[in-house]
UniProtKB/TrEMBL annotation:
It is found in: Mitochondrion outer membrane. InterPro entries: TPR-like_helical_dom_sf, TPR_rpt. It is a single-pass membrane protein. Keywords: Membrane, Mitochondrion, Mitochondrion outer membrane, Repeat, TPR repeat, Transmembrane, Transmembrane helix. Residues 84-93 have a biased composition (Basic residues). Belongs to the Tom70 family. This is TOM (Translocase of outer membrane) complex component. It comes from Apiotrichum porosum. Residues 66-83 have a biased composition (Low complexity). GO terms for molecular function: mitochondrion targeting sequence binding; protein transmembrane transporter activity. GO terms for biological process: protein import into mitochondrial matrix; protein insertion into mitochondrial inner membrane.
Amino acid sequence: MAPVAPLASLPAAAAAPVIAPAPGLLDRAQRFIEDNQKVILIGAGVAAAAGAGYYLYSRSGSAGPGPSTGAAAGGAAPATGSSKNKKKKKSKKNDKFLKGEGAEGPLLEEIKPKATEGAEDYLEGVPDAAGLASMPDVARNSLGATLKDRGNKLYAKKEFKKAVECYTKAIEVSVKKDAVFYSNRAACYTNYAPPEYELCVKDCDEALKLDRTYVKALKRRATALERLDRDEEAVRDFTACTIIERFQDEQAAAAVERCLKKLATRRAKDLLTSRETKLPSPTFISSYLAAFRPHSKPELPENPTQGDQTLMLAFDALEAADYVHTVSFANEAIEQGISWKVGQAEAYNLRGTFKFLIGDSLGAKADLEKSLELVPNFVQSWVKIASVHMELGDAVSAFGDFETAIRHNPDDADIYYHRGQVFFIMGEHDKAIADYQKSIELDDTFIFTHVQAAVAQYKMGEVAKSMAAFRRILKQFPDRGEPSNYYGEILLDQQKFQESVERFERSIELDKSRKPRNVLPYVNKALALFQWKQDIGAAESLCKEALAIDPDCDVAVATLAQLSLQQGKIEAAIQWFEKSGTLARTEGELVNAITYEHASRAQAAFLQNFPEYAERLGQIAQAA
């Protein structure tokens, strides 16, 4: 069984370049994500605007065998392309922003004076404590304003320490405290050599106690927090700036993205060094394995060793979809020693496969290379090591692997299917179709080659041909649930909601007795009902039903996170994103799960700190 994920959901890195989403949903979601990075700030608008848009941002398209679908399968990298172009054009402005500067220099309030006269006697007229106590409040406040103006002049002259003295005195003498005094003094601290970012943060704290929507103080504190590597707090403040400014401040939006990336990358590295290795979900594993035609287990030699017998147990466990025991028996067999070369090559192929599935690409590469040293014409190992090379970003080596496999066996249909997958994810759909057709000529009984060819046609805009191909596939494989699921996705993309739901239900019915169960039609049906009838309750129930069957189904978890955001249940969404992180297979997947978790945390903090903006945020989400 090789289930397919819902549109814009299953990671290609998981299983391979495979079925891609139809253009409409992907394009809408892509545009949404590129819209000032709102997708990482407006949780309530994500699902409405982009369906399963979470994974559009989360998983880049790497190649490897296995049917799946979604933006990643179409090769959609994290949608930051347009924002990166903007950053290049505005790099100088961004540098100023990091220093707390605007177009006219430092972001000081009322930095009117360009002239510098009158700053020499900057503390002139300031009485001692006794004199200050005898002054009326109006006079004290007036003196405070004068001292602030002197501080501004000194700041313009870059005499930051003298300016700090003026602002400090302004704070001391004034009866009515002014947030500007603290914010301007904070700006001075960022210009010290070396900068005093901790003092800047403290002064911004005081300014924001007096005026909590004071955007300049928020920006200044956020910049200082970022410099102190307190990225989670920086994200909080930059997020607040962005929302308060109605997403018009591109520099603040870029800062959110930048800090989230640093925060997530750092946390991901820490987590990967400490967490235990675990297998991905059965849905994920079965999807990958089903991308290869059936491969009979090797025959035992006449006098098998204990290691030989253990290897057979590994293959028995694999056939029973008992993946935990498959791995343990394969490791044990290698440790015990296998007596014949073919058996050794099979063992390393099997262990390398599961290393690839858990995200250990280098370990997988080493095992597959060992398999090929033992049996150089082991075509499946060549195909799998091509997948590893693609995940490692080495497309040249991957295509070399396919050519080597063809030299060993030009009539192996799997080679052309998997090379077609790589072409597919690279967007070269005509080459992909040519390879799929070659694979079908060699063996027309493999369902996924037919499906991939039909989807490639759809991606090329040949909708009628694709739909006709799917109808033929449904007739050719009437007892298989996968074609109905795939066809349902194509129908869903065309907003043929009732027909798509019927297809997903048919897929569920046909596969109900399979082990492991294909849970992805449940999630697809959930998305269809949400898009069709906005029936969030039914969508959540279907996703939870999928998780009851496969507790580690990352697609269901991601969809539940989005449905929670759609309802404004940010804390629930955070919990689902945390769960998504525990299911992440690679560092990239973990980084993206952490990114969304902390983007949601920042939004939750904003709504807690600025409840009066909740309605505005909802309005922006509805318009997105």
